[in-house]
Specification:
Layout (H helix, E strand, L loop, with lengths): L8 H21 L2 E2 L3 H18 L14 H6 L8 H11 L7 E2 L1 H19 L6 H8 L3 E2 L1 H12 L6 E4 L3 H6 L1 E2 L4 E2 L5 H5 L10 E4 L4 H12 L5 E4 L10 E2 L2
Parallel strand pairs: 3-8, 4-6, 4-7, 7-8
Antiparallel strand pairs: 1-2, 5-9
Helix pairs in contact: 1-2, 5-6, 6-7
C-alpha cells in the first residue's frame, strides 16, 4: 500500500470532500463537531487518507483489516459514520470513539470544561461556583486544578473531603494545606470505615506520585463511595501551599 502524500493536490481535494461529508453527516443525525478543532482535523485527515488508500472512509481510529476489498468487507471494518457510533457511542457517551461527531449537549458541556481548564492553568481569574462543580466532577485532576478547588472550598463555593493516602512519615514530611485526614494505604480498609457516612460526599485523594491514590480511588468506588477524584501525579505535581508536621 503506497503512503499518501498529504501535500498533494489529490489529498487536499479529498480532504475538502471529507469536510463536506462531515457536515452532511452532522445535518443528517443532528450532531455537531467536537469543540476541540485538533480532534476534528486529525480525524478528517485520517478519513481522507483512508478514502484514497482503500476507496472508503474507514474509521481512522481502528486498523483496517484485509488486503482486498472482499476481505475488508468480510472483516466488518468500521465505515464512517459507523454503526457502533450511531447505535451506542453517541447515544450513551455523547460522542463517537474518534470524537469528531458529538451531540450538541456534549459539545456545550465540553466547551465549559475547556474554559474552566484554561482559567485554572492560566490563572487569569478565580473560578466560579459552576466551574468549581464541573472541575470537582473530574476523576483525574492536576495540581493546578486541585489548588483551584481548595480555594473554591475556602470561599464556600463547594465542599469536599481531601484525603492523604500516604503513610504518617510522609504526611509529616509535607502535606497539602487543607487536608482533612490521613488514610494510609497500609491500613486503608480499616481507616476508610470512619468515612462510611460520607459516601455521598465528593472526596479528593492524593499520594506522592498518584499511583497509590489511583488504587485507592477505585477501591473506594467498589465500596460505594460515589464521587472520588485523584490528584493524578501526586503531591509532587502540586505547587500550592504545603506544610510540614
Amino acid at each position: 500500500m503506497q503512503p499518501v502524500d498529504m501535500n498533494s493536490p489529490e489529498f487536499k481535494a479529498e480532504l475538502e470532500k471529507t469536510w463536506t461529508f462531515v457536515q452532511k453527516v452532522n445535518k443528517s443525525f443532528g450532531w455537531v463537531q467536537n469543540p476541540n478543532e485538533d480532534v476534528n482535523e486529525g480525524v478528517a485527515m485520517g478519513l481522507a487518507r483512508n478514502k484514497l488508500m482503500y476507496g472508503k472512509r474507514f474509521c481512522p481510529c481502528f486498523m483496517v483489516e484485509g488486503e482486498t476489498k472482499e476481505e475488508q468487507k468480510k472483516a466488518d471494518n468500521r465505515i464512517c459514520p459507523c454503526k457502533p457510533a450511531i447505535e451506542k457511542e453517541i447515544p450513551e457517551d455523547g460522542l463517537c470513539h474518534c470524537g469528531i461527531f458529538c451531540t450538541p449537549e456534549y459539545a456545550e458541556a465540553q466547551k465549559k470544561t475547556d474554559e474552566v481548564e484554561e482559567v485554572v492553568h492560566q490563572h487569569s481569574r478565580g473560578i466560579t461556583k459552576e466551574e468549581a462543580e464541573l472541575l470537582l466532577a473530574k476523576e483525574q485532576l492536576d495540581g493546578d486544578e486541585v489548588e483551584a478547588l481548595i480555594e473554591a472550598r475556602t470561599l464556600k463555593m463547594i465542599d469536599f473531603l481531601l484525603l492523604d493516602v500516604r503513610e504518617m512519615m510522609e504526611f509529616k514530611m509535607g502535606h497539602i494545606v487543607g487536608t482533612d485526614a490521613l488514610v494510609p494505604t497500609s491500613s486503608f480498609y480499616a481507616e476508610i470505615e470512619k468515612f462510611n457516612d460520607k459516601k455521598e460526599t465528593p472526596i479528593l485523594v492524593y499520594c506522592h506520585t498518584g499511583s497509590r491514590s489511583y488504587q485507592v480511588q477505585y477501591a473506594m468506588k467498589s465500596l460505594g463511595f460515589k464521587q472520588i477524584s485523584n490528584l493524578q501525579h501526586g503531591i509532587i505535581s502540586f505547587s500550592g501551599e504545603v506544610q510540614r508536621g
